[in-house]
Batch of 4 targets.
Target 1
Amino acid sequence: MATGNKPFPQMHRVAGFKLGTTSAGIKTPGRSDLVVMELQPGSAVAGVFTQNAFCAAPVVVAKQHLSSAAPRYLVTNTGNANAGTGEQGMIDAQASCIALAELQGVSTDQVLPFSTGVIGEPLPIEKLLAALPAAVAALDENTWASAAEGILTTDTRPKGASLQYQPDSATDKLITITGITKGSGMIKPNMATMLGYVATDAQVDSELLQRALRLVANKSFNRITVDSDTSTNDAVILVATGASGIHIDESNFEHFVAQLEIVFIELAQSIIRDGEGASKFVSVVVDGALDSAEALKVAYTVAESPLVKTALAASDANWGRILAAVGRAGVEDLDVSRVSVRLNEVLIVEAGGRAASYTEAAGEAAMAPEDITIHISLNRGAPEKTVTETIWTTDLTYEYVRINAEYRT
Amino acid sequence: MATGNKPFPQMHRVAGFKLGTTSAGIKTPGRSDLVVMELQPGSAVAGVFTQNAFCAAPVVVAKQHLSSAAPRYLVTNTGNANAGTGEQGMIDAQASCIALAELQGVSTDQVLPFSTGVIGEPLPIEKLLAALPAAVAALDENTWASAAEGILTTDTRPKGASLQYQPDSATDKLITITGITKGSGMIKPNMATMLGYVATDAQVDSELLQRALRLVANKSFNRITVDSDTSTNDAVILVATGASGIHIDESNFEHFVAQLEIVFIELAQSIIRDGEGASKFVSVVVDGALDSAEALKVAYTVAESPLVKTALAASDANWGRILAAVGRAGVEDLDVSRVSVRLNEVLIVEAGGRAASYTEAAGEAAMAPEDITIHISLNRGAPEKTVTETIWTTDLTYEYVRINAEYRT
């Protein structure tokens, strides 16, 4: 199951950024599972990684390499997460970097490794190494779509987003931002989701690029949850090749970040739309909070409540379960009698109880669409001083249980 | 579904404590849904209640009455939680106390009201009031079993525990402790679970009784989770009638608490064994923690992980998901390479990776039984300085989703 079945978008190429995809036989034989990405010399790279203490070998190696050299290659395998694999896992992650570096004549620490798939099985490194030349041979700027396929695991469809914008009305020049992502379960990123790769041809120095990445990750990949389980392998990489010749500095940074945010939100939402077993795409909006932390606490408690999620699966406007989740979210001195809740445009709770205007028929109608917004107003202070946060999640269906009872993460 | 289908135990009567059960027609017609309990004059009463900010009207009233007078009656209805019902809910909760007080010639604040069932529907107070005389007429010391039936909602079976012990080897006198509880979903108590009533004929002053209740609730009802959803109506009441004539003071307090704990743990575990859709009874033991808070953080993160719970449902020894949950539990400076995990007696993880001695066959064998212990050793310090905590939970099955998609909490 999945929601909002839009066609895969048109992907603008990013000058200076190539992708090559092949099948190494790690996952199902014949299925693409190895993707190499090449960055032109001088590209800036920013990354955010899982904050799970139990993080995978490739995450450790990618972080080390990113801090010691300017990356030229990213190598990603699916079918095996190389997580919980101890010392051998570190050796295998390094081996993939060494092999690709030798093949392309760069230094080992200019290669960043990424893995996703089953946890705790040894990485079939021989298969991966044997397939590297084929992936390299496929490198091209126009292969975003096949790379989007190549990084998938339990996802039911590839996920991409792409746009071009004109940073300066005085010239015709365009900046391109294009990205792909994967992820479907074990989704509650904490700095980054499963895997995401976004490239732009803007010219951005590394420090500013990292700042931009943190800003937009916090409005996109860090605002989604399928099942509250943070992966061991989360990583999002943002590359600026500079090939457009358009320089980003403080003067046009905000515009750049706003455009980047569009691509990031589209990618993050595409993960939720393809969430394991998802039959609903749910936005949880919390306003009237004293700060961002308490707004997020309420939003995540509601979004992760199994009782709210099963009610959503049943299209049941069960406002009691929503209020019960709000009540246990741990907001200090919460005055429930000030809380109101809307489902899409229907007011279901006011003053902490069922809204006077509410009817079962209106609640049913509000729950019918595939896209549902649960809008919770805490009314904790003067509106101009309060904070609003939005996160995205799925419902909890039989299908989620089936997938995760059958699939070995 | 449910696990560990033991027969309902023999319930020793508690002198000075009577129970009367009837059908008020609030729930399914003909099904018991109203229970009155009578405490002999001079009984001490202790209570712990939900910490959900969105708490039900009867919880508010019960807490008020408990603080202002010595209770003589408890009145419980199922089929309707009287939660999210605003001002009318408070009036209805009070009305049930007023009516029972008039019937029995006590003051209104000597009656504590309890409700459980659907949230957000008005309490059918007329039906409740009309049935009170029948419940009062049924009051008897030997009716624990029918009361245990009368407080159920989605539970598949009644839950009770009872014991007698000899507090002083110099005499033959016995103290009796008997209790019942209900609850199956929306279970993550925070001070108390759905509903629990325990009575003893020991003579205990109120302050000491409250201390005893807090101690044992923290080892029983506050150590269970079905779905991480804390109810709006949780309450556990402990009554000491004093009818045995045996006085509890500091000298024999510890022995009393130890016996009380046996009854409380049995009751709390019976809720988990009857957890919605449960096919496994899972103990999560975390040792080697620096303090109780971090042990519980790890235990609950593992117990509430949808991916761990679905693996348990599939009898899949998926240690990767367990480690991933440990890793995201938020323990500061966790050194994953010191973590080991056992499933029942099988070592599956050592030094943060798959144990050398582990085989798939051993993992399968460990997961086969209905009762599973996940034993996580954090090895965070010298064993004599570290802390161990144990909690109990269920797996996540299709059946859980079905029940909660169909049932209006």
Note: DSSP finds eleven helices and 16 strands in chain B.
Target 2
Amino acid sequence: MATLPRQLHLNAFLRNIGQHEAAWRLPETRIAGITDIDHYIDLARTAERGKLDAIFFADHPVLKGKTEFRPFDALDPFTLVTALSGATSQIGLVSTASTTYNDPYSLARRFATLDHVSKGRAGWNIVTTANADAAANFGYPNHPDPDHRYRRADEFLQVTQKLWDSWEDDAIVGDKDAPRFVDPDKIHRIDHVGEHFSVAGPLEVPRSPQGRPVLFQAGSSEPGKDFATKYAEAIFTAQPTLEEGRDFYTDVKARIRRHGRNPDEVHILPGLSAIIGGTEAEAHALQRQLEDLTVPDYGLEQLSSIVGFPVTHDDLDRRLDFTDRQDTGTHFIKSRYALVKRMVHNEKLTVRELLLRLSGGRGHRVFAGTPEQVADTIEEWFTTGAADGFNLIPPALPSSLSAFVDHVVPELQRRGLFRTEYTGSTLRGHLGLNRPASRFTTAASAPAC
Amino acid sequence: MATLPRQLHLNAFLRNIGQHEAAWRLPETRIAGITDIDHYIDLARTAERGKLDAIFFADHPVLKGKTEFRPFDALDPFTLVTALSGATSQIGLVSTASTTYNDPYSLARRFATLDHVSKGRAGWNIVTTANADAAANFGYPNHPDPDHRYRRADEFLQVTQKLWDSWEDDAIVGDKDAPRFVDPDKIHRIDHVGEHFSVAGPLEVPRSPQGRPVLFQAGSSEPGKDFATKYAEAIFTAQPTLEEGRDFYTDVKARIRRHGRNPDEVHILPGLSAIIGGTEAEAHALQRQLEDLTVPDYGLEQLSSIVGFPVTHDDLDRRLDFTDRQDTGTHFIKSRYALVKRMVHNEKLTVRELLLRLSGGRGHRVFAGTPEQVADTIEEWFTTGAADGFNLIPPALPSSLSAFVDHVVPELQRRGLFRTEYTGSTLRGHLGLNRPASRFTTAASAPAC
């Protein structure tokens, strides 16, 4: 039997009615989509029609910034992705959830349940929550600093993994005659006691189809990369150029190896916001249309929060000057700060130019072109050591997702880079990942593979 | 236009594969149903076919007791009910959730999202969590006492209601030309600071179809009744006899009035576990079959935890003696303790007899009979001041639910006591409840009804 060539992994990051901050102003965009389940069902089914690995939603446990000027993620992502489980049957369902503003028992219980109700399609994008304003919704005087957040996240992962392992696969006996419903020797307390958590366990959810949900992470800072390479099975990242993408890929794969893990079992998925046109001119016209609809007010606020000092209308035609600025830590995503600084330095961008670059992808790579050109850049990154696939971030929804599925996916399939049918029905199956064994299952009792 | 006679409200309480502790041992019961979404989809659609008001699931954030001898609620109820939203279109979706082991911001966000994705069918059964073992899954050295739990619950309700009100109905403007996505004057911080919670708000979820989810509660203790009559829009209760049901009904309706609320807008729904047969003999044979399949081990453990002292196999043929027992508060549900004490006293039950009574309904009323006899008892309670409807607790699933929907519902419809079609598509609509206005909406800006 011929071995399949290495296959791309494609994940659709669905941001309400579009990632581009001006997408809502396009004539065809339906404002009500922001809270309309039918809008999200349409997106999920389009992504499944395109045989994508998964759809995924961000998590913001706080109403962010200047909502006057742009939409926002208005629904709880876990509840949304759960509601979509019944409208789809094969595509992976990934929700972001915070280790800072959840407790591990409840979160483990919810994800194990999602894995059951979706029949093995659950994924968790682990975040520590970057937005400092979230603290005020949870009774904390201050947002914990990154080191504290990552220490808590590490212990959070230990606890949730133990809880997911707390039922062995064959714990339910269901012997009506004995009678014996479960074998209590195959259900384990975890009795975790640590710096942040004390959790007795076991979970009350029997072991789920995938054993554990697939773990995603997007850390690009030092502690973030360390955490991601220790736990994640797929890593999201914002890489604006091929060269930076390759550097990140090489660095992260080496770190994975240093953690004693197989780098082939951790997929690196850079963000890609593709503006697709039938011709190059059409794609660029759509990009210009989006730029023309962008107002600076929202972007200035976002940029100010990234760099940690106020950037105003008066600065629009200047270049940001970082020389007297300390890396003070007031900005909330270190990797995003470094990225912006690098963009200004390398590309000599004015604030106005920088805002246009950020408006489309919020730091993620924006590429405008024909389906063939989009496939070309995907293939180049994929075959030259910069990516195992992509986190697709459609600038406008549903139009940009449909364009990708209808025109780019067939081109990738023609090139033999992407599946033409799902070969399994679990997210682990799509990603080529093994189902983990429970730590409590002894070799003697483990079922044969 | 003729006024409809007062209508029953029927809610289906779905406990995994059956409320009766021996239901899993019936030959037809499918063990795998416990974690199988298709089992729950089947139940939800059966309940919707019967035009019931809602389905509802319990919440146990801990693996309870002797699972060797009986099934348990194995899935997170909120996630389960959310997954069922897409498989149904009209029936209400009620999840239990604890005010002791949740934070109000996250919970408000989830329920508002469920209300959006279900298009107005969300209900929250508020509990403070009675099982003391839950504390060990959340890092608490001890389970908080009832007074503390109810004080926290009260503040929890204040916070969540403010959060659900934080968006006025017309806050989303979506003016593409202005551009103006929302009107920030119609989105309100709540800035709640209290004994248990500090929450800034606003929620990031725009106001949902029902304004707020419908609130259910099952407090039967003194603080429980006080809480329920202050907040709940439907009250679950365990009442073994018509006389006790009437006393409870009269007491609770008076308390509702004392809180300045309209007693007609709070429905009292006693539990009813109906064992249905084509003839009386068939019904009693099914009841005997269930009794014969009941083993005392599980029931003895449950009973011990209710009464607060050990009850063993040696006690099976004695009557429990409460004379030297203090109401020590070690037992975890005060109202259940009082109920058991009353049953032993009034009906002179041995422990064995008591266990059989508890095995079917865990304190809820069990009634075996023909569809006509079940309809008779429902009609009697409904028309003589003991109930506004019932919380149906099918002893075996799916069989007892199907029997009720196929045989009892048509009988109730023939008698003009129950709807033959849904007249609306929201849970508030089914229950005849008004949609609450946001506290932040001024009279001038309120939309006309």
Note: The CA atoms of residues 361 and 405 of chain A lie 19 Å apart.
Target 3
Amino acid sequence: MAYNNSRNPLRALQKKLGSKILIRLKDGTEYKGSLKEYDNFMNVILSDASEYIKKEETNKFKEIFVRGNNVLFIIPDGE
Amino acid sequence: MAYNNSRNPLRALQKKLGSKILIRLKDGTEYKGSLKEYDNFMNVILSDASEYIKKEETNKFKEIFVRGNNVLFIIPDGE
Amino acid sequence: MAYNNSRNPLRALQKKLGSKILIRLKDGTEYKGSLKEYDNFMNVILSDASEYIKKEETNKFKEIFVRGNNVLFIIPDGE
Amino acid sequence: MAYNNSRNPLRALQKKLGSKILIRLKDGTEYKGSLKEYDNFMNVILSDASEYIKKEETNKFKEIFVRGNNVLFIIPDGE
Amino acid sequence: MAYNNSRNPLRALQKKLGSKILIRLKDGTEYKGSLKEYDNFMNVILSDASEYIKKEETNKFKEIFVRGNNVLFIIPDGE
Amino acid sequence: MAYNNSRNPLRALQKKLGSKILIRLKDGTEYKGSLKEYDNFMNVILSDASEYIKKEETNKFKEIFVRGNNVLFIIPDGE
Amino acid sequence: MAYNNSRNPLRALQKKLGSKILIRLKDGTEYKGSLKEYDNFMNVILSDASEYIKKEETNKFKEIFVRGNNVLFIIPDGE
């Protein structure tokens, strides 16, 4: 495993562009959608996204821009 | 998809200038209005904005300046 | 709409100097007064300001200096 | 009004050195005293200061050093 | 003990790449998995991870990307 | 009063080295002790320190290192 | 007392490397162990550490990496 890789988890998201990911926010809400864009603060744009509260789908968005400081974790393989 | 794009979600807002967007704050309040200005901290100015608490319209503002650190997410297509 | 403008919402406050604005803090308290000074952190000085808690006027200040990190939003047209 | 002034509310405190000011913290506690020193983070030293909780005087300090990140607002004219 | 080592606890994670670690978040949730990547903000990617709430396994993830600012502590030896 | 002094409240702590000071944390706990070291983040080391919860002495420490971001205020004259 | 020392409380931890220290987190949990590494953000690695909740030992760790922003204070002499 290369040293540079091991020090840059955000770069790992690069490979997920266009794939389904799941984002859980600090308040427990989850968003599942296709990763369209992201930056180093974990600001993320998902397309064709669904919102889940307590595992129930509560909303659908063609596109959603999540502010990074609210993110708890990202599951790169959101299926 | 170009690398630069994928690392700059904020630039995606550039295309939404003048369009209706929806902002949800951390406290659940939502603002819908026309995106007039924004910056890298997600400070946003909306014009002709409506405020929604629990999906009920509670206020109208000719212009509102939302401080970015309160933002949970932005739905670029706020219709 | 010029690109520079669209990336600098704080500059929009420049035009409001001397005008009445309304500031809502994160705790819900509101301050209405004449915008005297501000900076990039949204530190703001209002003159001839009134404080409102649940829409009731609770105090008056000849001058008040609000620390920016407490600001939820600013209504530039505070009338 | 000069542009530089309008972008530097903290400089406005310079004129208040030696005058009585009032500081309200985020938890509602208030401190009234003579402004002795301050910096750009709103760290403030008051001399001959009184502490107020719910408008009742609860303490007196010859000198108090308040950490800026706790400050809600400052009333420059604390009389 | 070398001075450089003693000033860089994050470098200690370098030796744990590929090993099982445990991460406890501020909200008490725990994640156990193989350390794949990390950075200076303690953003961490675990592979083959399990989620534990009150010591009960509640979920499994092939890969999870935890945002560093949520981390309470890391047990490098997660077995 | 010199301009430099008025912009550097932290420098005022320099004169208190070796003197008794009182630190109140955001959670109300207080520490009284001899100021041994400090830095610009208000990280402080006290020696021969006592801990007070609701004005009751609850602990004694030969030395305590308080992280600055927890500090509410410092009373330089802690007697 | 040298000026440089008085402005660098973190350097004081250098002398404690290998000694027992106690860390109290903001949530009240305490960790006692041998100081192995630390950095300027108060990220700390303890070895042979015990966890205490309300003074009861609740866990033991061969090694624990505590994220600095959770730290309330450190007692350098943890015995």
Note: The longest strand of chain C covers residues 56-66.
Target 4
Amino acid sequence: MTSTLIDPATLPGWSTDPAARAAARLDRSGFDPGSDPDAVVVAGSVDEVAAVLAHANATGTPVVVRGAGSGLSGGAVAGAGSIVLDLTGLDRIVEISPADEYAVAEAGVITADLDAAAAAHGLRYAPDPASLAISTIGGNIATNAGGLRCAKYGVTRDSVLGLDVVLADGRRIATGRRTVKGVAGYDLTGLFVGSEGTLGVVVGATLRLRPAPVATATLAAWFDGIGAAAAAAAAITAARLQPSVAELLDTACLTAIADAGGPAPRGGAFLLVQTDGFGADAEIDAVRAVVEPLAGSVDVAADPAGAEALLATRRAGLPALERLGRVLVEDVAVPRSRLADAVDAIAAISARSGIRIATMAHAGDGNLHPILVLEPGRELDEHVWACAGEVFTTALRLGGTLTGEHGVGLLKRRWLRDELGDDVVDLQQQLRAVFDPRGVLNPGKAI
Amino acid sequence: MTSTLIDPATLPGWSTDPAARAAARLDRSGFDPGSDPDAVVVAGSVDEVAAVLAHANATGTPVVVRGAGSGLSGGAVAGAGSIVLDLTGLDRIVEISPADEYAVAEAGVITADLDAAAAAHGLRYAPDPASLAISTIGGNIATNAGGLRCAKYGVTRDSVLGLDVVLADGRRIATGRRTVKGVAGYDLTGLFVGSEGTLGVVVGATLRLRPAPVATATLAAWFDGIGAAAAAAAAITAARLQPSVAELLDTACLTAIADAGGPAPRGGAFLLVQTDGFGADAEIDAVRAVVEPLAGSVDVAADPAGAEALLATRRAGLPALERLGRVLVEDVAVPRSRLADAVDAIAAISARSGIRIATMAHAGDGNLHPILVLEPGRELDEHVWACAGEVFTTALRLGGTLTGEHGVGLLKRRWLRDELGDDVVDLQQQLRAVFDPRGVLNPGKAI
């Protein structure tokens, strides 16, 4: 084997240029490894990915796979001693099958580009992480990214039919299939999704596409406070309605939006609901009927322009917070019935710690994004992490999880055993060793 | 450890009675291991499951887990040298959470019973394998069972949030979570689903429930032949409609139904379509519009009684075939666009082999059930398996899979490398060894 090894330094995409290495050091997590990676290699083909891995495996060199670098958990940060394998050059949409409603895409394809290509056939790629305009399919798969439409359409895993993977030693395998169903062998596809670059390098995927809905209806409601808004979300569930989107903003979000000159708040909490499909209008009427008794005011959009106006408040949330300082976007999930408890507990953590925390939540699936806002000049110090840690343990105490859709990366590793238990973490480490016996794939991350 | 081992022969559920052993030897696959298992133990609790496994692991005794014995791939057959661990006594529905739309159930709960319990809250358990009145949740999880509603609502995996598992050495772990989203650690839940009793013993599950649809609409269409029916199914897809059910019967099925005194055929192929939700009626009208130009006749049910009348043809299929002789229910899947090719190829295999094959298909997801009907007195001989093998290789040639929803079990092992390739099978065997290093869990099955 070693006689056929190609030195990655001979590849056209190889660089040890200081600027290239510095650009590949960070992601959007706020975590700094303290040094630059030794080199960056922009893969020009799957064969080059295989060559890089075979060499890294033979030499014991850590490899950090990088897409758009938009991750929020530190999964793609890379320091001295490692090389960064950049997949953004693998950006071909290989196939769209309108008849079988799937797409085959390379890992570096931007998620929004795939969705746009699907739209030309009346289809859509359902997962819609907030980063979709910049993040890649490969990165979405690495973290099992979610988005706004998950409660109805599932997370990334639910849209991945199969994967093309390069193993740590450079061998290539295909997992899954192009059919909707299949149960031949263990679900390796599911194992790779969410594995954050630690089991193999996903270079391509067969992705399920779904019919674009014939209609979408939009409702916005304002409430006195988070308790009433959460009660409204619970009432929607209790009425057995299934919105495609149900987004909740707390008072801290609404205040920041107003301070930024955005839509004026009409209450202390905001809930945005969308329904879709042939029954969108009938279902939004049913939503209105259960929400209205709990709300201060309710608007249903009459047309797409009206829907955009209602969506503006939700969209204004993160930019308004980013104006105030550096943000740490957290990502916990709880059973939906504990949403109000979670938001209240997070507000109490904010008050105790003195760190401003605003919470946006995907109310339909119980996924909360508490956003820690640091005053200008403040670093991500231990006090900030302790505050984030309180948020994590709150989610676990309420029966939830450390991470709904962003992944464990570097930032949440120290809490992982609290959620999973020692036996499960130990099993997962053994699984990791099956795929990567030499420990070259994103060492120190995820599990 | 050995000092604390409990001999399973001391458990109240233990039996070496010949009748009990004989009753645990077969499932519904038609495969006979040629001998009875050494013993059967009906577990009375999870602790007893753990005790059985710890002892089996220590002594190297093969354990075959059994639910209702309704499997069609031989995953639960058990011969001399093995003990059968029967989970049908673990039949408690532990919790239904209407607020969070999940259920916690033990492995031995009958699938239909869970669905009925959910219905009391306006919810349903979406996976609906044809065996749901007799099969168990644990068995459904072991094979990642499908059903009629998969194209819209997914397979069993898509409704499993978390699992309670006893490992081969008797340790207990919990996988997954009660939240809709979560990405902390590798997806062990997905790994256990479809693993056919080879990675651990699933003793309980947290299952996602979904709103029962407010309305369901039903359409039945008759066509000259399978080509037109498949074209109609393709037209439904091309119109970006999403039926909850789309079932196709071929001429051989319809002939058997008519011979059995069932509904008279009005063509050479039959397609049953259901839509559901707030837009069910509007969506069935859209289905009708695309199907009608291709069909000989189309009926849309006016009410539930009318829907039952249309469903009667589909329901009559398997019983009509079982009248004619012993049946071998196969289970392949192809990309939906290859449905007609697959049905045609299977008809040719039938003509060539002289073995009657009737095909029913879940047209919405490309899953076909070619049903081999053996004349009375005929055994499952090599000629029959060769014929089944031709069906499997046809599915692979068309870009499909050996098994859509029944599992590999014993019957399909010899074709598994053809689908997965050597590298993937080898990796899966290494994963298996992580969970079951002594090889006591259902040896010789699945991978």
Note: The two ends of chain B are 30 Å apart (CA to CA).
